[in-house]
């Protein structure tokens, strides 16, 4: 057999192949119910009061009192001040706090999740808490919480929304565990 000509080989490579037949079947999404922000906050507060008073329903059930990141006002204020070059490093810190940091206060422990992938996680029970100090920021809209542990470690939680409620909850849970040092 004679070898194929180069023109025939090139035309077979360049010739487009037809696209595969694809079909699209839309799947309806299940309906969800939304509750108002006030109802959600009221239910979280009721759970917190029940847990603080020692009425833990379900025995081993862990209830979440607060789960969230840094206050949005901290990010907004730092972005405005970031227009000056002098404040730019603090703005970058606020942006990283807003997108990377998460706090969770449950009926059993405090969890701090950080890192780009959320791999840096710190958990400690209320039985290891010896003191809780709050520092208000921006006219008391948000604040920092400094928790001192039994081994002397200080955990600094920055820009926590509802910081007074969260600190009071942490104090009451630590007092219920018997580890809080009263000063």
From TrEMBL:
Entry keyword set: Membrane, Transmembrane, Transmembrane helix
Respond yes or no to whether keyword Transmembrane helix is given for this record: yes
Record field: transmembrane: 75-100
Asked whether the UniProt record includes Membrane among its keywords, one would answer: yes
Looking up InterPro entries in the UniProt record yields: YdbS-like_PH (IPR005182)
Q: Where is the YdbS-like PH domain?
A: 101-170
PANTHER family hit by this protein: NAD(P)-LINKED OXIDOREDUCTASE SUPERFAMILY PROTEIN
Report what the protein is called.
YdbS-like PH domain-containing protein
